[in-house]
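Quick illustration, no need to memorize.
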Amino acid sequence: MVLPMTIHQIIKEKFPDLTKSERKVASFCLGHFVDFSVLTLIELSNLIGTSTTTVIRFCNHLGFDSFKNFQTCLKNEINIMPTLSERFQLSLKVDADSVFTNTISHSVECIESTFSSIDFEKIDQVVDEINHARRVFLFGMKESQALVHYAYTRLYDIRGDVFLLDSIYSGDAEIALDINSSDICIVFLFHRYTYTSVKTLPFLKSRNAKVVLITNSPSESIEQYGDSVICCDVSGIGIKNCYAAPICLCDCIGNKLASLNPEKVQNRTNELELLYKNYSFLGS
């Protein structure tokens, strides 16, 4: 059984051959599938900051005879989430001898497509909110939980008062009741996310804390629950998503936060070094 390539995969494959202006359109499309599927040609070109001709050439370069045809196919694809079995079938098309190089190249492409279309002012705003928040709460379930713990290791060493909200579902729900407007909640929510993950968002919003959603496109169904929404490209060439981009985003946030408080971070890292020595930690 040979499955056709998805539009996402076509863009990834064609990306190196696109012109600079067409790559700008491609990056926007990868992060805003829903917008690209419903806006008019003029609305899209104005939003991206390019010409209508460039958008049309982008569609043609992918093999579509018109912008309208591309939109129709994109709409159909948005409504269809491939199963794990289908994703595995697609992964079989990759030459076994090229798995390592293709995986590495794809991870780099995910980072590039994410940060070529990301709003750095929004990231600066999130960092500023983390800096001034009383406490930082991190939440995510399933695979996103791994990102939560990664973010925790980055933020806790810098500022302290960072908490994992996964304890809500392990018996310590009381910690969530203390969240208020002086706190910030960072939620990692990547498809496929669980029903429980989505149910948590209205509750966090009701606590009046700042809510930052780190997710992937399309995100329209959950954007109402976030004060800030940052979309990352997590497409995978195997059966699982590639989380290189959100990991890189966590590093960016952590490094920028540290640069705002160099003296405070220096004192904290000195204390951490003493702790590590006392407990015989190896490395950092």
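The chain has two domains: 1-80, 120-278.
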